[in-house]
Design a protein that fits this description.
It catalyses: RNA(n) + a ribonucleoside 5'-triphosphate = RNA(n+1) + diphosphate. Pfam families: RNA_pol_Rpb1_1, RNA_pol_Rpb1_2. Belongs to the RNA polymerase beta' chain family. One of its GO terms (molecular function) is DNA-directed RNA polymerase activity. Its EC number is 2.7.7.6. By secondary structure, the chain is mainly α. It has one domain. Strands 1-2 form a two-stranded antiparallel ribbon. Strand 1 and strand 2 form a beta hairpin. Helix 2 packs antiparallel against helix 3. The protein is extended. The termini are far apart. 5% of the residues are buried.
Length: 177
């Protein structure tokens, strides 16, 4: 146990030395993602299928309203503390529902998909939508040694360089005309 605590103390000390402040890690205003990322899809039965993120936001809103009511009613402090903990768990689930102690589940016992799970992985937003599919001149290659380059230099094949810098080259040629 001693080594475990010494490790924690050393991490706290390094954090102190870095000049960071703990309140920088607190979110004061919760970001709401665009409805395009968390759509409502109409079904043929007249009902709507909703995104998991909508369900996580709904949970946060309901727990926040419940906390507000508890404050107004003057209910004992321990219940107020429990409500704050529940609200914090809901916010944690929004960012990463898989890593929380009690993940929020659907009625069919499926873990709701959070921000991190919708971004990461092979089917996440980055690899699926933002990085593109097949691209010519993407510049992917195996990193290899070049004896004529310094450590701070990067080699680039001339065809890829011309393709990447085509807009700049055209602009410079137009200026010279």
């Amino acid at each position: 146990y001693l080594f475990k605590y010494l490790d924690k103390i050393s991490k706290i000390y390094l954090f102190y030395l870095s000049g960071n402040k703990p309140n920088w890690f607190c979110i004061k205003i919760l970001p709401i993602v665009s409805p395009k990322i968390r759509p409502l899809i109409p079904l043929s039965t007249g009902k709507f299928a909703t995104s998991d993120l909508n369900e996580l936001y709904r949970k946060i809103i309901s727990r926040n309203l419940r906390l507000k009511n508890v404050k107004l009613l003057g209910i004992p402090k321990q219940i107020l503390i429990n409500e704050r903990i529940l609200l914090q768990e809901s916010v944690n689930s929004l960012f990463d529902n898989e890593k929380t102690e009690n993940p929020i589940l659907t009625s069919s016992k499926r873990v709701l998909k959070s921000f991190s799970s919708s971004i990461k992985g092979k089917y996440g937003r980055f690899r699926q939508n933002l990085l593109g599919k097949r691209v010519d001149f993407s510049g992917r290659t195996v990193i290899s040694v070049e004896p004529n380059l310094h450590l701070y230099q990067c080699g680039l094949p001339i065809l890829i360089g011309l393709e990447l810098f085509k807009p700049f080259i055209y602009c410079e040629l137009k200026k010279k005309k």
